[in-house]
Amino acid sequence: MIKAILVDDMQEALDVLQADIKTFCPEIEIIGTAKSVVEAAKLFKADQPDILFLDIMLGANTGFDLLEILPNNNFQLIFVTAHNEYAMKAFRFSAVDYLLKPIDPDLLQEAVGKAKERAAISSESLELLRTQIEHPNKLAPRISLPTQERIHVVDIVNIMRCESMDNNTRFFLENGEKIFVSRTLKKFEILLQDHPFIRVHQSHLINLEHLGSFEKKDGGYIKMKNGDIVPVSVRKRPELVKALDKMNQ
């Protein structure tokens, strides 16, 4: 059995989540529920869960206050939140899983399924999430990239380009590192749309800050500053030319 602790300051929300988990995720054993940071900390002293379902707002405190006082984070974390779209974007940047109230049973099962397979959330990812929630209008400087081994938190300016591989994405960093993420390129295109990234091909998303030159011969291709060659589709060519012209203004 997978042990879980549920933390929410609303008893009704706890009751609903508890009922949903028992119905749709019978492999989970709920070993305790809490309505405050203090109550939750006491539960952790008694037993360590495999998964923590945590509300962001806990009365005068937040879920982050609880995470700061726990001795370790060797558990899977799923936030349960009623926050707005700004917060949802923060979760996507930090790669921290979340469920939006009212909870969709299918998404609950999906979140639990992913929790069984992924590495524990890093303190860097949590700090990134907290910063983005506290400053929703500030452009995120970093992004979390989850792999099977761990979660990489990287500076967005250091991402040179992204390449689609079926339903996965390979990131190419300035230092030569490559990171393989099991998420579609389309998701990252949307997530990075406020940054200087542009989709130049069905399989390629590039950071314009790392573009070396746009060669118009042979149908058109991009030469990145590190020498990488990236094809440009006919359909995307006008959009690329427009973006380059804007950079020169």
Features:
alpha/beta, 249 residues, 5-stranded antiparallel sheet, 2 domains, OB fold (Dihydrolipoamide Acetyltransferase, E2P), single chain
List the helices and strands and how they pair.
Elements: E1 2-7, H1 11-24, E2 28-34, H2 37-46, E3 51-55, E4 57-58, E5 61-62, H3 63-69, E6 76-81, H4 85-94, E7 97-100, H5 105-117, H6 123-134, E8 142-146, E9 151-155, E10 159-165, E11 168-173, E12 178-181, H7 185-191, E13 197-201, E14 204-207, E15 211-215, E16 221-224, E17 229-231, H8 237-247
Helix pairs in contact: 2-3, 4-6
Describe this structure in words.
This protein is an alpha/beta fold. The chain folds into two domains: about 1-135, Response regulator (Rossmann fold, 3-Layer(aba) Sandwich), CATH 3.40.50.2300; about 155-245, OB fold (Dihydrolipoamide Acetyltransferase, E2P) (Beta Barrel). It has eight helices and 17 strands. It has helices at about 10-25, 35-45, 65-70, 85-95, 105-115, 125-135, 185-190, 235-245; strands at about 1-5, 30-35, 50-55, 55-60, 60, 75-80, 95-100, 140-145, 150-155, 160-165, 170-175, 180, 195-200, 205, 210-215, 220-225, 230. α4 (about 85-95) runs antiparallel to α6 (about 125-135). The longest helix has 14 residues, at about 10-25. The termini are far apart.
Condensed summary:
Helices cover 34% and strands 32% of the residues. The chain is α/β, with parallel strands linked by helices and 249 residues long. The protein folds into 2 domains: 2-134, 3-Layer(aba) Sandwich (Rossmann fold); 156-247, LytTr DNA-binding domain (OB fold (Dihydrolipoamide Acetyltransferase, E2P), Beta Barrel), CATH 2.40.50.1020.
